[in-house]
């Protein structure tokens, strides 16, 4: 390894912090498996905020997100034996949120009624507003066609302002992989929204 390839102080600090989190989570999981339910409360406290953020990004509705969080922590408790204690707990429960959130969105879509906007014709004076509404609707439609990982990545980056490294840490992905998914998602979005972009003054 050349001197330029050697990890710097910041890289070493992040690696130490990541290792400490893995060791903490593994210790808590061992306590839960040994019958200490209070240890799971500690896990919930540690991950409640990031899990809710992911859930909200997936379902887009606070009440649904709260229900999803409860469901996912219950599932995590029930299937804790499948958790690999050598890996971070965060990405593991994030995958549970993504999978169950996708199921919830599909179920909600099947129950959805026709949008009210379809029954109202915009007035000529509201043309710009109607165009913006159409663009927003198109954006939501295209976002829904992305796979869960790409939709989550583009939302974390463009809405939450997270870096590739931060997203990678949350989803247990290499930063380069995050950037590739982000590039692909943005390419799909640009192509679908090209008409609206070209119409901008």
Write the layout of secondary structure elements.
Layout: H1 9-33, H2 37-59, H3 62-78, H4 89-111, H5 127-145, H6 148-158, H7 164-171, H8 175-192, H9 194-199
Key words describing this protein structure:
single chain, 201 residues, mainly alpha, Arc Repressor Mutant, subunit A, 9 helices
Tell me the number of structural domains.
Answer: 2
Number of strands: 0
Mean pLDDT: 76
Indicate the overall shape.
globular
Order of helices and strands: HHHHHHHHH
Q: Approximately how much helix is present in the residues?
A: over 70%
What structural category characterises the helix and strand content?
mainly alpha
Provide the gyration radius in Å.
21 Å
CATH topology descriptor of the largest domain: Rna Polymerase Sigma Factor, Chain: A
Distance between the termini: 52 Å
**Looking at this structure, what is the CATH superfamily of the largest domain?**
RNA polymerase sigma factor, region 2, helix turn helix motif
Structure explained in plain terms:
With 201 residues, the chain is mainly α. The protein folds into two domains: 18-113, RNA polymerase sigma factor, region 2, helix turn helix motif (Rna Polymerase Sigma Factor, Chain: A, Orthogonal Bundle), CATH 1.10.1740.10; 124-201, Arc Repressor Mutant, subunit A (Orthogonal Bundle), CATH 1.10.10. Helix content is 75%, strand content 0%. The chain is built from nine helices and no strands. Helix 1 (9-33) crosses helix 2, helix 2 (37-59) crosses helix 3 (62-78) and helix 2 packs across helix 4 (89-111). It is globular and about 60 Å long. The model is unreliable at 116-127 (pLDDT under 50).
């Amino acid at each position: 390894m050349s001197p330029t390839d050697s990890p710097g102080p910041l890289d070493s600090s992040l690696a130490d912090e990541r290792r400490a989190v893995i060791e903490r989570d593994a210790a808590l999981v061992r306590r839960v498996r040994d019958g200490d339910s209070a240890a799971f409360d500690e896990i919930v406290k540690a991950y409640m905020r990031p899990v809710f953020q992911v859930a909200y990004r997936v379902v887009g509705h606070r009440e649904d997100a709260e229900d999803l969080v409860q469901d996912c922590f219950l599932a995590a408790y029930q299937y804790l034996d499948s958790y690999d204690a050598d890996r971070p707990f965060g990405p593991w429960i994030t995958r549970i949120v993504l999978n169950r959130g996708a199921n919830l969105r599909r179920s909600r879509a099947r129950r959805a009624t026709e949008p009210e906007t379809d029954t109202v014709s915009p007035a000529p004076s509201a043309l710009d507003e109607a165009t913006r509404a159409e663009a927003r609707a198109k954006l939501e439609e295209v976002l829904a066609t992305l796979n869960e990982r790409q939709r989550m990545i583009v939302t974390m980056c463009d809405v939450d302002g997270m870096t590739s490294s931060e997203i990678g840490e949350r989803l247990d992905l290499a930063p380069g992989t995050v950037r590739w998914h982000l590039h692909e998602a943005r390419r799909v979005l640009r192509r679908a929204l090209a008409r609206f972009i070209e119409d901008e003054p």
